[in-house]
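quick one: flavin-adenine dinucleotide bound model?
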Amino acid sequence: MQLNELFPNVKFDEPMKNHISFKVGGKADIFFEPDNVRDFIEFIRYVKENNIPYIIMGNGTNMLVSDDGIRGAVIKLGDKISSIEVIDDFIIAQCGAKLSEVAKIAAENSLTGFEFASGIPGSVGGAIAMNAGAYGKEMKDVVEEVEVLDSNLEYKVLKNKEMEFGYRKSAVEKHNYIILSAKIKLMKGNKSDIKALMQEYDERRRSKQPLDLPSAGSVFKRPEGYYAGKLIEEAGLRGKTIGGAQVSEKHCGFIVNKGNATAADVYDLIKYIQKTVYERFGVELETEVKLIGKFE
Ligand SMILES: Cc1cc2nc3c(=O)[nH]c(=O)nc-3n(C[C@H](O)[C@H](O)[C@H](O)COP(=O)(O)OP(=O)(O)OC[C@H]3O[C@@H](n4cnc5c(N)ncnc54)[C@H](O)[C@@H]3O)c2cc1C
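yep, here:
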């Protein structure tokens, strides 16, 4: 049977710029957003059996997709797989749940510990894969256990330690895990304090980050002993523009799409920044953003 007979809502030649926060990039050969976990497992079995390469995405806020697009399948684990349940001091969230939603529900239930993540625009799956963090806290500080499928599509429940969390990384990439859901451990707190802290973080973000333009957040990881944004600024690159891609005037760690950027513009600017910062300070900037597809 053909793919679209088995999975009626599969799309072909889907523009990825509609699905990633950078709003650049070419088309994915196959694009599938499953309605539920069962659909997802059937689809991934099919692509594996037919040797179709695939990638998993959440909310697409940490990705740069090449202008050539993606050969094979993109599986988006998004809004349709996003239930959130509160049990005592725990929140059980499916991979597609937005961090902002989890934070909102935590606040409503007077649970503290998730405020740091309220303004990170990713999904639970993407945030755990990346060990996303802000304001001195990371996902590793709140994740109790994670339900995953391993590379043989076997179901496993992994404890925090088994997730091998590190700075903006986890065992997910190394072992090709697919995150299905997570159990997040929080603590009882005071609802108005929780809301006030979330608001404070929100204001800090709004004042420092260019949230009005498409981007993928901080492009580079923090090099040990430095701040990427500060190095970029001190290298004189604030506002540096290639095509439609620009080093943000507001936050030099961000590259923004001024409206008509291509993925190649963004990539060329990344390379230019890396070269300039290395020549100036001898520091190698490593990308935090995932480059997907063919570059160069
Ligand atoms: C304005 C802005 C501000 C940001 N601020 C921050 C910040 O403060 N801190 C921070 O850490 N990041 C920040 N980011 C980056 C980004 O939001 C985080 O990295 C986020 O966790 C990515 O989640 P996502 O669902 O969008 O992942 P995606 O971009 O969709 O995917 C990222 C990676 O995770 C993998 N992945 C996604 N879902 C799954 C899954 N279910 N199972 C296995 N792998 C999966 C993908 O394959 C990919 O490798 C920011 C981005 C923007 C645009």
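The radius of gyration is 19 Å.
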